[in-house]
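Readers of this paper often ask what the protein records in our data store actually look like. Such a record has a labelled line for the sequence and another for the backbone structure tokens. The tokens are whole numbers drawn from a learned vocabulary of local backbone shapes. We quote a single record here, exactly as it is kept in our systems:
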Amino acid sequence: WRTTGGRYCSQCDAPKPARVHHCRHSGRCVLRLDHFCIFANTPIGAANHKHFLLWQLYQSLAAAEMARLCFCGLAVAVDQTQQRSSSGLSGAAARKARGDAVGQLVLLVLGLIVSLFTFAAPAFYLPGHVRRAMSNISAVEAAQGSSKEFDCGGRLRNLERVLGRRWLWLLPLGAPGLRTVLPLQTHKNHL
């Protein structure tokens, strides 16, 4: 295989082709390394970038739906609490109804807070990842100043390099032509 400009990874003791970068967290070289994801505990690169983008998208949508359901549940719970307070219950039945209502409200508020935080992180980072995918560059390449170097002739064509055929974009199926993690040599750690 070809090397570009004599690039060599001293940590892996192997030549580095174009667009390969060493991930210090995983201890291996990764084709089109974007970043190391602490949540997936793996480097995000050519082999799994599409799955990472879809994971962020689906997580954002699920968290937004959870927030909507918690908000609707909160509105219903508040309404039921007001109805119970005006129903004329007394004594132990009234205390139990109030306790149930407070417990329900606390759970719904906690669910709403968790869903908003769960939505915020991927929704904040997703546009940047999509923007870089539309330019066919990784975060590492963007930090090094690469911009038009890997352009395939337009945003949609660049997205196809990451997401595959357009009708498969939202399905978690691998993108064509993007093969695994380098190096091809066995790591010293795995001997």
